[in-house]
Design goal:
- 33% of the residues lie in helices and 25% in strands.
- The protein is of the alpha/beta class.
- The protein has one domain: Rossmann fold.
- The strands form two sheets. Strands 6-7-8-3-9-10 form a six-stranded mixed β-sheet, with helices on both faces. The protein has a four-stranded antiparallel β-sheet with strand order 2-1-4-5, with helices on one face.
- Helix 4 crosses helix 5.
- It is globular, with a radius of gyration of 18 Å.
- It starts with a strand and ends in a 21-residue tail after the last helix.
């Protein structure tokens, strides 16, 4: 099954944030959305999540319009991490992660197991009893990633799930950036899940994405594989800068480029 945007346009204050977007996101694939600031990346994530309705066109999940899904059933099938997740209440970290189990009937043993697994995956087990408001920006980001992961980690039911992440690595250090992307890739190989991620780092996008979508002023100017999308012509057109494309041997190591 797929998450599909059908001819989506979004008009806000007489400005098109998105223009005639047609794209499909499939289980087992990591799609990375790239583009300059203001190109419509966050708007597209919000439309795909059902947070805002497009002015034209629509989004369907498993062949059903997002608007026709019951909220609890939709919450079991797609999880969203916004660019800025705001939480000012003095919750303990474990309590924040546990919010991800809200769409499900209470099952204390199962819930505890899934919460423990998510906290270990995102390296926050040591923060379990700390108040969320005392954490750094990167630590908070990992807490919210664990919360969304818990929301979608009930794989026993066999439902295909979609995780939508808007700049999830923006506050993370190099170690946790790499771990997050590898976790997504490895999970997609084993479980019925698709992932849509907004990234600014073109190197990370090239390394990890199965599909790339390049936006400019709300329009898709390229969609496909790394070789199809990350050409000099496309990047210069989208970002209005001159670039050099340097090939390197991809690996799980972080690539750090230092100019000569």
């Amino acid at each position: 099954m797929s998450l599909i945007a059908h001819n989506v346009s979004l008009l806000e204050s007489d400005t098109y944030r998105l223009k005639h977007i047609n794209c499909e996101f499939s289980s087992g694939h990591l799609t990375v959305i790239i583009g300059p600031n203001g190109s419509g990346k966050s708007s597209l994530i919000k439309v795909l999540a059902g947070e805002i309705r497009p002015t034209e066109g629509g989004v369907s999940l498993e062949g059903v319009a997002l608007a026709d899904w019951a909220p609890l059933e939709l919450a079991k099938r797609r999880g969203v991490l916004a660019q800025q997740a705001v939480l000012d209440f003095p919750f303990q970290v474990r309590e924040v992660v546990a919010l991800g189990r809200s769409p499900y009937r209470r099952a204390p043993l199962k819930d505890a197991r899934l919460i423990d697994q998510a906290m270990a995956l995102f390296d926050i087990s040591q923060f379990s009893d700390r108040f969320y408001t005392t954490l750094s920006g990167g630590e908070r980001q990992r807490v919210h990633l664990a919360r969304v992961w818990v929301q979608l980690s009930d794989f026993e039911t066999g439902i295909t799930r979609y995780i939508l992440l808007d700049e999830p690595t923006s506050a993370l250090d190099l170690k946790h950036q790499g771990e997050l992307m590898l976790l997504l890739k490895n999970t997609l190989k084993r479980q019925p899940m698709g992932a849509v991620v907004v990234l600014h780092d073109l190197n990370a996008a090239a390394l990890h994405a199965d599909q790339l979508i390049l936006l400019r002023q709300g329009e898709v100017i390229a969609c496909g594989t790394r070789e199809q999308v990350l050409s000099r012509e496309n990047i210069e057109r989208a970002y209005n800068i001159e670039v050099d494309i340097l090939a390197y041997q991809a690996s799980e190591r972080q690539a750090i480029l230092i100019p000569e």
